[in-house]
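Onboarding guide, step 5: your first structure request.
Type a short instruction followed by the sequence, for example:

Predict the 3D structure of this protein.
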Amino acid sequence: MTIQLHHKKMIHIIAPTSMEHHLKKTIRGAGAYGFTYYTVKGEGESGMQTGHLAGDSSTLFIVVTYEEKCSVLLDKLKTLKDRGHHITVFVSDTEVMDSAKF
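The system replies with structure tokens like these:
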């Protein structure tokens, strides 16, 4: 049995939890309506993010979408970064079984 897979882009966005609402609007504004997000802990150039306080909590968004929508979203995220928002973005190629979902 052969399973047909469909090429998409997967975008991981790590940002302060205080930006959660704004990022949801940004993602939807780029035309990507489905995403997963959750609170994460980590350590990097800005120090440890433990999640114990609102100011040191981060949220990870995972968005899977078409390449065209990915480009629009990346432009919007770059604008946020240029305005001084502390966000980290990773983009990778991925394949999905159900193309209509995205």
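Each response can be followed by summary notes, for example: The mean pLDDT is 89.
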